[in-house]
Design a protein that fits this description.
Blueprint lengths: L17 E6 L3 E5 L2 E5 L5 E3 L5 E6 L4 E2 L1 H10 L2 E5 L6 E5 L6 H12 L1 H16 L9 H23 L18 H23 L16 H11 L3 H14 L6 H16 L1 H14 L30
Parallel strand pairs: 1-5, 2-6, 5-7
Antiparallel strand pairs: 2-3, 3-4, 7-8
Helix pairs in contact: 3-6, 4-7, 5-6, 5-7, 5-8, 5-9, 7-8
Amino acid sequence: MSLPGLPPPKPIPLKERAAIVFVERARIDVRDGACVAVEADGTLTHVPIGGIACLMLEPGARISHAAVALAGRAGTLVTWVGEAGVRLYSAGQPGGARADKLLWQAQVALDPAARLRVVRAMYARRFGEEPPAKRSIDQLRGIEGRRVRHAYQLLADRFGVRWKGRKYDPHNWDSGDLTNRCLSAATACLHGLSEAAVLAAGYAPAIGFLHTGKPRSFVYDIADIWKLDTVVPEAFRIAAQAQEGTLKTGPERAVRLACRDAFRKSGLLAKIIPGIQELLEAGELPRPEPPPEAQGPAFEEETSGDDGHRG
């Protein structure tokens, strides 16, 4: 809320925000211009909607039209998720793709040579070394999978947790073992944060390079780059504590809090958006220019924040 005679405050850039907030069994509403969570007994908790990247609504949560509108203006992604965020039911875009960036992303994805260059850049950023030469995308995917499985085993040995491989059923949360549930909860946090960054930067979540055919393919591409450095070690650490019986809360909640702190400590949001542009630039294709006969926008809209802000 702005004071009389003063311009409205500018939205907080995404890279300067906290990462995510989970809400369950509460109603999200707007009171006196601020976003709040109203519990069954009437208790109000302030939700800093303009200071977070992603609001994840778990089972039992409801949200008002006013709160959704406020989140949209602030450029905050709202998602409706299953228990611990392991399933995504729906998402409200904070701003959506920008035409110039969307066309560039699609152009790079549709060019086989450019797409391979981007995948190789993703591999190099993820593992800190150049991928083997003369490998196809499928071959790089296989090499990457082996390295990730090896990294999981090393972390399991390091923290002393029982590990029989990555196995989970998104339709049956309790079917997974403790470590897999912690990994699923951690990955869901990272996916929410990555999708918020992809949308706020003006790109399309569905147009992926290593992952394809899914509504969030590009989100998975981006999240995987930072997964092993951020959320995966936290998942194994929390699983070890839960296995030892030293946790003071449920493992899924402990994982979410640990991921939040890891995002803040690593400054991940400040890295993702420029990282996306650097990856697409690795495709070595220029951004397409609009055709000369194209008609400009009917209304000139001024934005006061990132690409993802509506106002």
